[in-house]
Amino acid sequence: MMPMKVCEVCRSFVNGEEGDCEICCNALLYIPQLALKVLEELKDYEFETFQVGCRLRGSARAISELLKFKGVDYDIKRVFNDLMSTKIESLSLKRRSLKPDINIVFDLEDLSFEKNVAPIYIYGRYIKRVRNISQTRWLCKNCGGVGCEVCSYVGKKYPSSVEEMISEPLKELFKAKDAILHGAGREDVDARMLGNGRPFVAEIVDPKKRYLNLGLVEEYINKYCKGKVKVLNLRYSTHSEVEKIKQERHKKLYRAKVVLSQDVDEETLKRALEELKGEIHQKTPTRVLNRRSDLLRIRKLYDAKVILKRKNIAVISFLADAGLYIKELVSGDNGRTQPSLAEMLKVDAKVEKLDVIDVFEV
Known about the structure:
It is a single chain. The chain has helices at 31-41, 58-69, 76-92, 162-174, 214-225, 239-247, 266-276, 326-331, 341-345, and strands at residues 49-55, 95-96, 102-107, 112-117, 120-128, 178-183, 192-205, 229-237, 252-260, 278-283, 296-310, 313-320, 337-338, 349-359. By secondary structure, the protein is α+β, with helices and mostly antiparallel strands. It has three domains: 10-117, 2-Layer Sandwich (THUMP fold), CATH 3.30.2300; 120-246, 2-Layer Sandwich (Alpha-Beta Plaits), CATH 3.30.70; 252-359, Alpha-Beta Plaits (2-Layer Sandwich), CATH 3.30.70.3190. Strands 5, 6, 7, 8, 9, 10, 11, 12, 13 and 14 form a ten-stranded mixed beta sheet that branches. A four-stranded mixed beta sheet has the order 2-1-3-4.
């Protein structure tokens, strides 16, 4: 039997003749050229750290499995990754890392490679000063975003969103493919988000720029939003904070303009609000049943106070758990929320305007 041929780099691992390598498919011989090709591909990207990986398929995988079967202690993937990382470090002065800015994955069958750029995460708070702007992109239900007569061929139910107002300047500044908004809950489309703003993390996808002054980024976003939306307290963050703000149950302070079907005196209203405090049993509101599961939620109302009372109109503040629907807390939603202000007063009640005043950190 002819001995298995090996390349010069593989010689220290397996004995054999020089020539076309049947072990690494000559991949190790091409490391200098491949490293230069990688750096050329990444020349427009800012990064400090990288990681090299590779996958085996076809003949490369078959040979690797054959070597293991024969008891040959040779890991082509480990050798290739280490040699390629060393070469890239020497050419670029970048450093390898287990949590890299860019991950480079080679296919040892045809020596092609792909790059995976780590997202950038930015934490902040946003204030929404106008109504009828959704938090995230809301695609037209009729066409799914393609464009149709129902949505005037824009593909969206609402012309803009907080997400788009923040993400568009982020995409431009970081030269990124996309930017996704992860919010700590969301306000209704017709509600404003005031006070200290709602916490969010923006996930910037495939960024070419990574190291920008966030003070200047904040200024640029706010100028772009023209007073409709404002961001504040921007800082660099991590993916773990995305999970944190989605899982935490932030208490929220609301202010609602409530219209009653008939006038009740202020003392009666105050007593009803006092009795309303405590545990609220709330089924998914009728108005959102088409997009959310019909569940029973138990939330707590911590406080409710009258700010202003004029005839059958009252401005009321509510301090409540996240996930408590304030509009239904007032109206009762035909018995789906119990207790409710309408039930306590024995008159019809509805929220005409709603603002979120504060979102408290856990």
